[in-house]
Design goal:
It is a single chain. With about 190 residues, the chain is of the alpha/beta class. It has a single domain, classed as 3-Layer(aba) Sandwich (Rossmann fold), CATH 3.40.50. It has helices at about 15-25, 35-45, 45-55, 65-75, 90-105, 120-135, 140-165, 175-190, and strands at about 5-10, 30, 80-85, 110-115, 165-170. It has a five-stranded parallel beta sheet, sandwiched between helices. Helix 1 (about 15-25) packs across helix 8 (about 175-190), helix 4 (about 65-75) runs parallel beside helix 5 and helix 6 (about 120-135) crosses helix 7 (about 140-165). The protein is globular. It starts with a strand and ends in a 5-residue tail after the last helix. The protein binds BIS(adenosine)-5'-tetraphosphate. BIS(adenosine)-5'-tetraphosphate binds near residues 15, 55 and 88. The site of BIS(adenosine)-5'-tetraphosphate has 30 residues, from helix 1, helix 2, helix 3, helix 6 and helix 8.
Length: about 190
């Protein structure tokens, strides 16, 4: 099975939570740009030092950095038969870069799935996570800023994929298992979105 998927959704909608579950179910890697950035920050790598000033205030990391990182990651063997991208693309320019990466390999995207969630619900979830994990971008001010960035930069992507007939929307409110089943159903029946 070849499955090339993109997972969209505001911060706290459940992208990271669901990406791991869906990828395991489909036997493809979940590739989270946010996780890669955090691992590099934790490891004190040059990439980590470059991106921390952006991630800590909830701003997007510059495309020049993010695009190259994703191109390298998608070239790895485990992504040859499919992948689930979590948190990329995040603006219209990154959509163009992903198109180019796939076209260079003679491939195309199968589906973009947008997990939807009310802003008040996602803020509450992220503040709860802050208590547990202490992520520096989970303070209320930074979370609100990340939501603004999502509305301005990332939400338009959903329209781009909808125009291509590649968008499915899934309600991210409710039990984690229930959301997973909605996603699985959407992947099996893309036209339902
Ligand atoms: P991300 O790591 O993508 O952060 P996120 O949008 O907050 O999503 P995350 O996956 O962590 O949270 P989730 O909704 O799963 O990005 C972090 C930063 O990296 C960005 O701000 C930016 O600076 C940078 N970045 C990343 N990608 C980039 C790109 N392409 N270009 C430029 N910059 C980029 O989960 C949130 C919480 O909700 C969890 O605690 C979870 O347990 C809980 N939850 C999930 N589902 C739930 C449910 N159904 N019910 C109750 N709680 C639930």
């Amino acid at each position: 099975m070849s499955t090339r998927l993109v997972l969209l959704g505001p911060p706290g909608a459940g992208k990271g939570t669901q990406a791991v579950r869906i990828a395991e179910r489909l036997g493809i890697p979940a590739i989270s740009t946010g996780d890669i950035f955090r691992a590099n920050i934790k490891g004190g790598t040059p990439l980590g030092k470059t991106v921390q000033e952006y991630t800590s205030r909830g701003a997007l990391v510059p495309d020049s950095v993010t695009n190259e990182m994703v191109r390298d990651r998608l070239a790895q063997d485990d992504a040859a038969d499919g992948f689930l991208l979590d948190g990329y693309p995040r603006n219209v320019a990154q959509v163009g870069e992903l198109d180019a990466i796939l076209a260079d390999a003679g491939l195309s995207l199968d589906l973009a799935i947008e997990i939807t969630a009310d802003p008040d619900v996602v803020v509450a979830r992220l503040l709860k996570r802050a208590e547990i994990e202490g992520r520096e971008d989970d303070t209320e001010d930074v979370v609100r800023h990340r939501l603004d960035v999502y509305a301005q930069e990332t939400a338009p992507i959903a329209h781009v994929y909808a125009d291509r007939g590649l968008l499915a929307q899934v309600d991210g409110i409710g039990d984690v298992d229930a959301v997973t089943e909605r996603l699985v159903a959407a992947i099996g029946a893309p036209s339902a979105g």
